[in-house]
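Subject: complex prediction, re-run

Hi both,

The earlier run crashed halfway through, so I resubmitted it with identical inputs.
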Amino acid sequence: MRLSVGVVKKALVIGGGVAGIQAALDIADGGYQVIVVEKTPSIGGHMAQYAEVFPTLDCPQCILTPKMVDVGQHPNIRLLTYAEVQRVSGEVGNFEVEILQKARKVDHTKCTGCGTCWQKCPEKVPSEYDAGVADRAAIYIPFAQAVPAKAVIDTEHCRYIKYLEFMEGEKEGKKPPQCRICERLCPAGAIDWEQEDETITEQVGAIVVATGFDLMPIKRLPEYAEDPDVVDGIQFERMLCPGGPTAGVVRRPSDKRTPKEVVFVSCAGSRDPEHGVPHCSRVCCMYLAKQAMLYKHAVPDGQAHIFYIDTRTTGKGYEEFLQRTMAEGTVYLRGKVSRIYRDGDKIKVMGVDTLSGKQVEVSADLVVLGMAMLPSVGTKDLAARLGIATDEQGFLTENHIKIDPLESTRPGIYLAGAAQGPKDIPDSVAQGSGAASKVLGLFAHSEMTPEGLVVG
Amino acid sequence: MDLSYYPGCTLKTKALNFEASAIAAMSVLGVNLIEIPRWNCCGTVHSMADDDLAHHIAPVRNLVRVAEQGSNRVVTLCSFCYNTLKRADLLMRNSPEKRNTINSFMDDEIDYNGQVEVVHLLEVLRDDVGWEAIARQVKVPLEGLKVVPYYGCTLTRPQEAAIDSVENPTVIQELMKVLGVTVLDFPLATECCGSFEIVSDPGAVIERAYAILGMAQRKGADAVVLSCPLCAHNLGQKQAEIADKYSDFTGMPIVYFTQLLALAVGVSPEVCRFDLNFGGVEALLRDRGLIPERV
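This time it finished cleanly. Structure:
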């Protein structure tokens, strides 16, 4: 006898970047309940960090923020930020998930997002959202358009939490200050020092994993200097962004001067088996071209150079965009960069131009490395908890690379966005919608017969 | 500890200072370098041609000599010899077909099947002796001396033959710090010195040497520390010509790491043969009070 089981018509989306946002909205618009779990205090993902996005140069504030707000306000969506999936059991149609809601030390039913606390908090730490090129307070929202626009306290850096830990541990040394400025100033009385981590258990029928990517850290390329004026692509996005820490005025980190010679290095880590990353990261050719163009718009008398192996512009409107970047004066040099080092005020970039067959040395003010895209930190652990496979690079493995790219190796768990492999925004959104349609297809049935489940 | 030692041609001719200082310093550290009998040319460069097996016979024969000595480990001082012997050993370990051909050709010798480990003296210092043991033997801390490390190419390339990180090696810096020397950051530590171009295109070597030494000078270095006689030659011998061409270049002492090691562990300066070095090493060390005034 084959056994039928009921389908729980509620979905879980893990990751609140643009792929997860799209998947959640499509499932919710289809009429089903969705739980969105996001590790950081706000949804938006990497896309929210970008200055403007290729090939049409619209700003994420214009095109992403409305979707973020929709997620925050959708009656069918339950948004859990600052939360992580801890355990998954059951099977397609009937998963039970345990979600860890990290303590925010702020009562979100009271917090109005007025901003008093993060303006007055005396503790400053490098901002994750600004990729370290600016600071944030220890109580914060990641960025102005954050959803939810409600503060969290970073318990690792909060002075009062440190004080409490100090008193509890009866440690030697100097006592940290009691601070509690946020608590005294909060007009809503939302600070809640008693709040602890909490585990939420939910039943869902399907799961979409959209945990995205992180860039390879620069220090994995020892031939390129660790220097404040050698930055990665996301850091440069923040430096270009009109809403960024310098309001779009490009200033190099070391001395805040506007760089007049900028070198961009494609394939920094990517397509480089010696560094353990054989894959192409797919988006770097385009975003470096975009950044060079935006840099030229911001610093018209500046010079941009791009070292490349070859340019890969396979999306709609992409090659035209690249041609425009070239026409606007960015110098393209076909070759790899062997070494980057500081020489006094300048950053020396040594490379080769394989078209002229000559060695090239550029004295730059700023160097931008198009670092390889890797699965976001923690993807492997999450995959193990979900019981789904990852590939050699740690990207989530699809059921079939060509004809079943949306389904994971476990029925009922679907993949979306860069967690499955490097992807640009259009592809991430498409895959988010695709995964949602898979979920909606599953939810069209009230009962299902899982394969292999035979009784009697 | 006894260790089989392969000298190579340069150590017996132009780099007597390298060999003498190494043997004396290692003896203080309790390591006897035993020269292998009947050694021949190392092969000079590793041939990358797939069918050029004859080229590997010289280095393999040297490894056979080590095995005949009853040893399973050989140390070199010259970076080039290290590279050629190491890569010949890797070839013999990893390519059974080529190994058979080479062994069949050398039918008077015992077969070589990778029974010898090829190491460079820097590895012995780091991995066998250890920095702490060296630190305990330092009698003359070389304080006040500022150097930049220079690895050249053959110590760290290719990756499978590298004694340290390919892109960012640190072993020379670590040794120098143990000796009390101040090590400056040096981005050109693994740049090419021009190598054999010294024969066919000395002008190119002058440009390479100026790039490297000029950077060392701008960094405020007193000397360049290295381990390769060819690098020492290329960076040292043409300094007068560099100074003629580039007026900002004022000369740069070139010293082997073993010479500073020997000096620091109390070996007499006469043994170190600083008189054979390029760029005025004697004058520098005298100026710093590290060797006595000439009488």
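The radius of gyration of chain A is 24 Å.

- K.
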